UniProtKB/TrEMBL annotation:
Keywords associated with the record: Guanine-nucleotide releasing factor, Repeat
RCC repeat intervals: 1-65, 125-179, 180-232, 276-313
Protein name, UniProt field: RCC1 domain protein
Organism expressing this protein natively: Aspergillus oryzae (strain 3.042) (Yellow koji mold)
Keyword Repeat: yes
């Protein structure tokens, strides 16, 4: 299952063997052998990339078998290796739980803030933290700003619950639990962790997000807001934060949604994929929102200020701020693909097809079969 990347690469976060930006999809490299694509009895690959999570200068890959790989800046150990130089190729992340004395090799979910990494153990009973965060981003307690080795978040999750998923913005993280509750930590002054936590400005360890109108099933994070999702068949969602309504993230939100397939967030926008297309609102000064002529989208990926779409038929397109080449080789003088979409050139290998796309902090990803 080859993975290709393009865009910002100053710390080697694309995992392509060097630290130069590229605008043409380039095959990612792995320190050891490339992860095996497990083959089912029907001949289909059963080990796919489930999630691509990007920090400011590092990237995490979560495979469906639970394996996690990381590349990019590692001066504080955020990629799971001994602190030091950036990793130019993807490295298998294995953490040792100092409490149990056992190694944790597989994970349920992953996320990344600007300088931190969050790994949910396969059993959903622990969150391991790696990296840095000067304002509560790590969730490890007041004054803890660095974790060069894996540290579990203390006394979390609450007894009787499991962690369903984790999501991070630039400076805050939220965790969805099996009982439908949401907890979070990090930046809180814009209301991204709920109104009750807003006055604290910085939350150093997990607090419950109060006042949710439904049972949460998932969440995504913008730079200063959080979108919590509920029952997609009922259109349930709520936006927390963005107190100053910058880029009209709150005021332009529809009062209600019908059935939707998924919700994504950029730093300053919200994107809803429905069977009829993509509904989006928020910042659009660089063409971050979908152009009006965007064809039917089979899969969407939203980064910090750009988006990728896999169209019916296997074509990949990009739009938004592409200053680092993350929208492909064609952009205007300001580095934007604005009011239109750009076709991403792909070097097809044999009978391979595009099966997924990803987007991070000015980084873009294409998964091949």
């Amino acid at each position: 299952m080859p993975l290709y990347a393009f865009g910002s690469n100053g710390s080697g976060q694309l995992g392509i063997g060097h630290d130069e930006d590229v605008s043409i999809p380039t095959r990612c490299l792995f320190e050891a052998s490339e992860p095996e694509a497990l083959i089912s009895s029907e001949g289909n690959s059963t080990n796919s990339i489930r999630r691509i999570a990007a920090g400011g200068n590092h990237t995490l890959l979560l495979f469906s078998d639970g394996a996690v790989y990381a590349a990019g800046c590692n001066d504080d150990g955020r990629c799971g290796a001994e602190p030091g130089d950036s990793l130019m190729k993807f490295w298998r992340v294995i953490v040792r739980d100092e409490v149990s004395g056992q190694s944790c090799e597989t994970f349920r979910d992953v996320s990344a803030c600007w300088e931190g990494t969050f790994l949910v153990a396969a059993a959903g009973d622990r969150v391991f933290v790696l990296g840095s965060g000067a304002k509560g981003e790590l969730g490890l307690g007041e004054g803890v700003v660095r974790a060069t080795g894996p540290v579990p978040v203390k006394d979390f999750p609450p007894s009787g619950t499991e962690i369903v998923g984790v999501a991070s913005g630039m400076g805050h993280t939220v965790v969805v639990l099996s009982d439908g509750e949401v907890y979070g930590w990090g930046a809180a002054r814009k209301g991204q962790l709920g109104e009750a936590a807003k006055g604290r400005k910085v939350v150093w360890e997990p607090v419950r997000v109060e006042g949710l109108p439904f049972r949460a099933t998932g969440a995504v994070c913008g730079r200063e807001f959080t979108v919590v999702t509920g029952d997609k068949s009922k259109g349930e969602f709520v936006i927390l934060g963005s107190a100053d309504n910058r880029w009209n993230v709150l005021s332009d939100a529809p009062p209600a949604l019908e059935v939707y397939r998924g919700i994504w967030a950029s730093w300053h926008g919200v994107y809803v994929q429905r069977d009829g297309g993509v509904l989006a609102w928020g910042r659009n000064d660089r063409g971050q929102l979908p152009p009006v002529d965007l064809p039917v989208v089979s899969e969407l990926a939203v980064g910090s200020e750009h988006a990728l779409a896999l169209l019916d038929g296997g074509t990949v397109v990009a739009f938004g701020w592409g200053e680092h080449g993350n929208c492909g080789p064609v952009a205007d003088e300001q580095g934007n693909v604005k009011g239109k979409y750009a076709l991403i050139p792909l070097s097809m290998e044999g009978e391979s097809q595009v099966v997924g796309v990803g987007a991070g902090c000015a980084t873009s990803w294409v998964v091949m079969s």
